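Appendix B, Record 12. Input sequence as logged:
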Amino acid sequence: MSGGLDFEGWTCPVPLRDTPTVVMGHGGGGAMSGELVEHLFLPAHGTAGNTVLGDSAVVDVGGARIAFSTDAYVVKPMVFPGGCLGDLAVNGTVNDLAMAGATPLYLSIAYILQEGTPLTEVRRIAAAAGAAARAAGVRLITGDTKVVDNGSGDGVFVTTSGVGLVAAGVEIGPHRATPGDAVLISGDLGVHGVAVLSVRAGLEFDTAVSSDTAPLNGLVAAVLATGADVHVLRDPTRGGVAASLNEIARTAGVGVSLEERRLPVPGGVADACSLLGLDPLEVANEGKLLAFVPRDDADRVLAAMRGHPLGAGARRIGVCVPEHPGMVVARTALGGTRVVNMPIGEQLPRIC
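Logged structural output:
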């Protein structure tokens, strides 16, 4: 590994939680994000506080089950190994719909452009978004564009919303996690976060690390086609696997037990995390999914995942247990256990 580190402008990964102003940790997908939503946004929106919160919502409309999702993307740099802001935004919303078991159909996209941004950069991002939508089999049908003064933004920000259909009989959500469920993951951890960081910090590794950004709706369709009673699907983006598993455990009131030796952490990710003191379980992913399925269904779901290009590295990493409800623990290679906490703030700001 080579390359100098520039620590100028880095943000503390655990900012103070008692603060009168917005800090970077509020956008990290961890405990601070949850507190912001719970104590500020939900009270402001009244009845929204009575809904089950997730990356997408499923509602009944005229006899059809509609999944709806919206998300904002603020990646820095906008272009990184394996992708860019445009395909990341489309894939992210496609994946949020797919995690509800929906077939994504339509997308809306809004661009906020900073004055002075080269049109070549904007064109590259827009072209990548269009290509990603075609690859995922969804249509971009509406959108918006705004421009802010030079210095009021940072290049390009993108917001996407998506709509999909959920088939009859499909019921997927964090509340369905059940003791005895096998916990599966579709492939290597942390590669998106490290790919972005490698450009931002000028890091080089013995093996190249590229983002895993990809649409997961095809992989989800392969899983559902097995006929397995899939309880939970989640793409572990901000906050990584640690945040996703803690959210699921708390929502369902169950425990999760992981086997560290089973976690697929590639060499470049392990090197970066060792150098910077990061936990691979907390690093963002953009093309991986977690699945909770009954133990008896685990082998056929794994086979279906491995039969799809985006699930070739799928493996079983743990089990859902009745003990320590609301907590995630990991058994170490030495036979001990450690608590895998919900991340508080943001390890890597502006990552997705």
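The chain has eight helices and 14 strands.
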